[in-house]
Design brief:
Residues 2-159, 155-298 form the N-acetyltransferase domain. InterPro entries: Acyl_CoA_acyltransferase, BioF2-like_GNAT_dom, GNAT_dom. It is an enzyme of class 2 (transferase). Keywords: Acyltransferase, Transferase. This protein has 298 residues and is α+β, with helices and mostly antiparallel strands. The chain has 2 domains: 3-133 and 290-295, Gcn5-related N-acetyltransferase (GNAT) (Aminopeptidase, 3-Layer(aba) Sandwich), CATH 3.40.630.30; 138-288, Gcn5-related N-acetyltransferase (GNAT) (Aminopeptidase), CATH 3.40.630. The protein is built from 8 helices and 12 strands. The protein has helices at residues 12-22, 30-39, 90-104, 119-124, 162-173, 187-195, 243-257, 272-281; strands at 3-6, 47-53, 56-65, 74-81, 109-115, 128-139, 153-156, 206-210, 213-223, 226-234, 262-268, 284-295. A 12-stranded mixed beta sheet has the order 1-2-3-4-5-12-6-11-10-9-8-7, with helices on both faces. A hairpin with a 2-residue loop joins strand 9 (213-223) and strand 10 (226-234).
Length: 298
């Protein structure tokens, strides 16, 4: 028998173990799960639920309203079901729960990420595929050494004032492919979620700096001998100089020196520039997921 219940901090390790089975190309530190349960503002209406079978967790759901978008009522569901427990109604029960949660929170539409085999499930529930994201991995052996153009210098994010990084992140996020714009990032929320969060390793994350301005940066999250690159961004005035490639190569070198053996990342299928950067760095395609959205009627 399977029971649905709210997740608690003690579930974090089991949630990450389940997610590693479903998506081994992602990085799943348990501290990040516990952090997510505690930092959410009330207006996000965040919830995390688990499906618990006699043998352990069989599914997990994270749901809420997007906090960094000017679009009001943009919701999301993140749903994972262990392969050994599929076709037992667990995904349907979690999706029903998540959609009720969003409807009660006033969501106008919802977005879900699905693997290729799960897309028919989403389409049957009224979702429409909107975008695709390609995941890639790289075994770190000898990352290239690249030099910055004159007038720029490397800096680890840990060496910088957080407002310098925040200013660059806000600008870079605005034209990042998304179903809802990332254009309303409050500094205090950014500090809690990113700068003071357990996921980013600020000593491995690298920026290119002109005077006191961060003009390009790449963030790195660490989980044992693996890293994940959730964001690489360049401010518009400095684009076209290859800075993303240079900065990301420097971060890979820092990770390799720290004993990391595998690096993973993802890019929207429409982001040809970053897809080309990662191919040049040696990343190889691992998987593709689809974003699918549906509207909620009043």
């Amino acid at each position: 028998m399977t029971t649905l219940r709210p997740a608690v901090a003690a579930d974090a390790e089991a949630i990450c173990a389940l997610r590693r089975v479903v998506a081994p190309y992602l990085v799943h530190p348990a501290d990040s799960v516990r952090h997510a349960m505690t930092i959410r503002a009330p207006e996000e209406h965040f919830g995390m639920y688990v499906a618990e079978a006699e043998t352990g967790l069989s599914g997990v759901l994270a749901v809420g309203l997007q906090r960094w978008s000017s679009e009001r009522g943009a919701g999301y569901l993140g749903l994972s079901v262990h392969p050994d427990h599929r076709r037992q109604g667990i995904g349907t029960a979690l999706a029903d729960l998540g959609e009720r949660h969003l409807a009660e929170a006033g969501a106008r539409r919802a977005r879900v990420w699905v693997q290729a085999e799960s897309l028919p499930f989403a389409l049957a529930r009224g979702y429409t595929e909107t975008r695709r994201v390609h995941f890639a991995g790289l075994e770190l052996r000898s990352p290239p050494v690249l030099e910055l153009p004159p007038g720029l210098r490397f800096a680890r994010l840990a060496e910088l004032d957080p407002r310098q990084v925040y200013a660059a992140d806000v600008i870079a996020q605005r034209d990042k492919p998304a179903d809802a714009p990332t254009d309303a990032i409050a500094y205090d929320q950014w500090l809690r979620a990113f700068w003071h969060g357990p996921s980013p390793d600020l000593s491995m994350s690298v920026a290119a700096v002109a005077a006191d301005e961060v003009v390009c940066f790449t963030a790195v999250e660490v989980d044992g001998d693996r890293i994940w690159s959730p964001m690489t961004g360049t401010v518009p005035a400095y684009r076209g100089q290859g800075l993303a490639k240079i900065v990301k190569a420097e971060a890979l070198r820092a990770a390799a020196a720290a004993g990391v053996t595998w690096a993973y990342t993802a890019n929207d299928a429409a982001n040809r520039a970053m897809l080309a950067v990662n191919r040049w760095l040696g990343y190889r395609h691992i998987a593709t997921q689809s974003a699918a959205t549906r509207s909620f009627t009043a």
